[in-house]
Fold this sequence. Notes:
The complex is a heterodimer of chains A (112) and B (117). By secondary structure, chain A is an all-beta fold. Helices cover 0% and strands 54% of the residues of chain A.
Amino acid sequence: GENVEQHPSTLSVQEGDSAVIKCTYSDSASNYFPWYKQELGKRPQLIIDIRSNVGEKKDQRIAVTLNKTAKHFSLHITETQPEDSAVYFCAPGRGGGNKLTFGTGTQLKVEL
Amino acid sequence: GAVVSQHPSWVICKSGTSVKIECRSLDFQATTMFWYRQFPKQSLMLMATSNEGSKATYEQGVEKDKFLINHASLTLSTLTVTSAHPEDSSFYICSAGRTGSSGNTIYFGEGSWLTVV
């Protein structure tokens, strides 16, 4: 099955700094690459996604970059704020994209 | 917008009993739904794919006789944890995809916390 890993597992940044989380996957058939933010006890919330025909996508402070050849994609958060503190998961999917394999997760802490 | 809802949000049951969790797509039809389990401080692990009108497809290592899945209608999938034990205590969450004009969107339910005592 798909093997999905994230690095780092924990990340602590100062407010205003940038944060980057990398996701590596093994299934070359993956064609949907989302990032989710999950707060404790709540459902995952989609924050940005990209499909395999695009290399980069940006939405305000959040961006995702994809390298299909190397099988990794990264989440970039600029101007971090305390409310960005949460656990972030990548979850590549294939086919219609509904079936996701979640990564190992990254705990992001934004300190004042 | 499209919503996926789960019930109950919290359930406590005694060891050896069975618990049913419902996942509903409120304003769209879902021929396929997915069930995940998440232990504290861990990732979401796919348990099974629920298929409307046919048998569920279970991931490797998930006992199909213990985690019964029924998808009898296009808007409802149920997960029954049979003969629950304390190690089954976890956060269970479902998802369903909806295809619209802007492409496919995946919706997650609110999740259900199961505590087996």
